[in-house]
Design a protein that fits this description.
With about 230 residues, this protein is an all-alpha fold. The protein has a domain of about 150 residues. About 55% of the residues lie in helices and about 0% in strands. Helix 2 runs parallel beside helix 8, helix 2 runs antiparallel to helix 9 and helix 8 crosses helix 10. The protein is globular. Belongs to the Tic20 family. Involved in protein precursor import into chloroplasts. Keywords: Chloroplast, Membrane, Plastid, Plastid inner membrane, Transmembrane, Transmembrane helix.
Length: about 230
């Protein structure tokens, strides 16, 4: 096949150089396509955007919640406090003889009892005052439903404590009283311990009842609660 052209082709000394302007532009385009490392740019259509409407959460409420308060124990009347306080005087007065050794060794303890000496003297001047006070407290207060549970519980604690403090005296009457040796030392320690225990229970019950609180005496509260 023979190609004829009206214009003769002229090649220059350098490669890929043509005298014809059309051929020169075509050759340059081919060379750029082969040499350029960048791929041909394609026109991409933008992908449609996806919109999701999420429901907005309402902010947490800052309204303060009402506080619930409950009073489990109402105020104790003054009469109930007075009767409960007087109940603990029974075991304390009946246990004063246990402090004879402490009063001898520590005279200041006897001086501390001077404010209540008139009451002690009046209590001991009544014949069988201990028995009368015991049954009056048990039958007139503990078993009387007209009194509140607060008064009855404190009176029952005083009754139980009085019974416990009377047991050593009953044992002493059966086995006798040692006068010397180790037996006498044990008797002295036992008497002093019983008096200290009785005094602590009296002071604790007295302060608690004055403040309108319920005292719980050790070894006594559980037994008193079961009797009510």
């Amino acid at each position: 096949m023979q190609i004829t052209s009206s214009k003769p082709l002229h090649f220059s000394a350098s490669p890929f150089t043509f005298e014809s302007p059309k051929l020169s532009s075509m050759a340059a385009t081919l060379i750029l396509h082969r040499v350029s490392p960048l791929p041909l740019l394609r026109h991409h259509r933008p992908s449609p955007s996806l919109t999701i409407n999420l429901p907005l959460r309402s902010p947490p409420s800052t309204t303060p919640l009402p506080r619930i308060s409950m009073s489990y124990r109402s105020a104790v009347p003054a009469t109930d406090r007075l009767i409960s306080t007087a109940s603990y005087a029974l075991p304390f007065f009946n246990s004063l003889h246990y402090g004879r050794f402490l009063f001898t060794r520590l005279p200041i303890l006897a001086t501390a009892l001077n404010p209540i000496l008139p009451l002690i003297a009046a209590y001991r001047s009544i014949p069988y005052a201990a028995f009368v006070a015991f049954f009056a407290l048990y039958l007139g207060v503990v078993r009387n439903p007209q009194f509140s549970r607060y008064v009855r519980f404190n009176a029952m604690q005083a009754v139980v404590l009085d019974v416990l403090l009377a047991l050593p005296s009953l044992i002493q009457r059966v086995f006798g009283v040692p006068t010397r040796g180790v037996g006498f030392q044990v008797l002295e320690i036992g008497y002093s311990s019983l008096f200290v225990f009785s005094s602590v229970c009296f002071v604790y019950g007295l302060i608690s009842c004055v403040l309108g609180k319920t005292p719980y005496l050790p070894f006594v509260a559980a037994a008193a609660d079961r009797q009510l």
